[in-house]
Structure formats: structure tokens, C-alpha cells
Amino acid sequence: MKAITGGKIIAGRTWLGGTALLFDGRVLDILPKSELPAGIETLDAEGAWIVPGFVDIHVHGVCGVDTMDGAAESLETIAAGLAAHGVTAFCPTTMTMDEAHIEAALDAVEAAKNAPPNGARVLGAHLEGPYISASRLGAQDGTHLRRPDPEFVRRRKSTLRLVTFAPEEDTDGRFLEALREEGIVASLGHSQATYEQAMKAFRNGAKSVTHLFNGMPPFHHRTPGLAGAALDADVFCELIADGVHSHPAVFRLLLKMKGVERIILVSDAMRGACLGEGEWDLGGQTVTVHGPEAKLADGTLAGSVLTLDLALRNYGAATGLPLWEAARLVSENPARLLGERDRGRIEPGYRADFVILDEGWRVIKTFVEGKEVFDRHENRDCKGL
Ligand SMILES: [Zn+2]
Questions:
Q1: Catalytic, out of 56, 69, 242, 268
Q2: Separation of CA 317 and ligand 1 centre (Å)
Q3: Which CATH architecture describes the domain 2-50+348-375?
Q4: Does the pLDDT at position 19 exceed 80?
């Protein structure tokens, strides 16, 4: 049992000062410091914020490694690298590649789910492709596209938490039905779907939209498409809040239309994140990182070099949301989408996943299930954090 005192604890829609957070692997209590049990290990947060741990549901890689490496060491590196940015749980995200590569990546994710946390927890995979539209590939390799395959997702159900697919490719609806039946979150993306096709998929159980505005036709008032359906329906929307994938004005518009309960900030980071400028591989394609942009040779945006703490700062700066509301977009909302009932909030019974942030919303320390996995005063493996 341990306690953190002297912090501003974000609990629900507000924050609590003058209290102590008591935890082991789970949050035990939030109580006055004077009521703490005697003799327990106590950390003074010195007025910093204590925020629910971030959950990144869309991240390919970071620190030079990628989910598609299909390697336990790569996932460990990602877990540690993300923890430096406040992430306490994540869905390693695959790319459209040949079946053997995807199977190997999923095998590695399955094995990593049960590994003891030395960083963020692996919750299971986000399968991004190969069931997407040839006309909305983004940085996905079109040579490996396949028809949506219900049997594949049923076979890999224990590893898959979220699947991005183009609903117009699922012509008989059997793929979405399989996702719904297996309890895998269906997210629409990399899609040319009409408004009507998208709304039908939402009615049939799709719950989210993958990086809204990217990988889909732009919103048009006569043909609202997937973007319009995402704004109209009561579904979650992922947003890459780096100011490159969408303009900060769009952060504000989205908040007006969806509210704080339906927006999920994702990094969509690729292996070059945290490493500065250079050339990197993403799903078999070469990506050049320059400043905040990661692009293929033809100029197509190819993942990001965003981290979730920076996304939170960007979103807060653009919208003026206070931290106790903005934090939902990286913690409670993604946990709710995934059905993680004991993550995303600081509340008795929840896992002791939290981040200590300074006044500039920069990460001081990260705790996963009560264990300190990052401290910014110590040396870090990941360059340029
Ligand atoms: Zn992605």
C-alpha cells in the first residue's frame, strides 16, 4: 500500500485538493491526508496534477520499433516509450501487410498481453486494415487489401480489441456481425462510405470512427459521407490532434458537435515518433519525418510522430478545455469504448493507472497498476522525449 499526497486529483468532472490517493495495484481510497494509515510509503506530488492514465487505442510504434515487427522486444519498447508520455494502456496497431506479417504481429500482441508491466499495458490489438477501401489507403499498402473476412476475426478474437474497416467493402454485413458477436469494437475508417452506408453500420453496431477526417472523403454539405455520419451519430470519433492531420479550428468544431464524451485523442504514432527527423519504415513503406509531419515520398501523411501528452496539450490549447475535462479524451473515453470497466478514472476499485502532470501538462511520473514505470528525473532510453 502506498499513497500520494499534495496533488490535485482529477476524479470525474472535477479535481480534489488537500486529499491523499491511497493505492496498491488498485485505487483503494481518496481521503484526507490525516486519515492515512500510519507508516506507509508516501510520495508528495507538490501541487502537481494527478490524472487518470492515458489509453492510446491507435498507435503503431515509437522509439524506432513497430507493432508489425511482430516481436516481443518491440512491444516492450513501445510500452516503455509510451509510458514516458503518460500512456498506461494501449492497443498496438497493425498495418495492411501480407497475412503472415499480420498473424505474427497478432501473436506477439497476444503474448504481450500477459507480460508484467514495465510500461503501459498491452490491451490487445487494433487491426487497421487489410479490410479497407482501395481509394482511401492513406499510408496503407494497397497490394495486400482483402475482402472483410469474418472467419479471420473470429479466429483471432482473443487478441483483437478493435478493428478498422470500410463498411462499403462488407457488402453482406457479415463482417460487422462477426465483430459484434465476438465483442470486438468496430471502427469505420479508410473508407469511401456514403452517409447512408456509414449510418447503417452504426445502427448495426459500429461504435467508432478511425481518425475522423483522415482516410475518408472531406465533409461536403450535399454528400456528408462518413465524416458527416460520424458527426451526426452518437458514436466515438478518434482525432489525431497534431495540427497536421486536422486544423486546430477543427478541434473546436468537433468539441461543439460531439462534446467531451465522444472524442478520443489518438497518437497514430509510427516508429519515428520520439526520434526526430529521419527516414523510417511503416508497414513496408518508407516514411520521411520532418518536423511534426510523417509522409510518404508522394506527400501522403503516414502516421504521425505525435505523443498522447502532446495531443492533450494541443487540444487543451486550441479549445480552452480545463485539464479535468480534456483528460477524459485520453483516458475515460477510450476506456469506455473498449469496455475497460476498471480503467480511465481515478476511483476506488479502478486500477492504479495514473500520471502526474506539471502545470504545463507535461509528464512527471507514470504509474501502471500502482507501479512507477516512468520518472522524468531519471535517464530514459527513448531519445528526444
Ligand atoms: Zn494508423
A1: 268
A2: 24
A3: Roll (2.30)
A4: yes
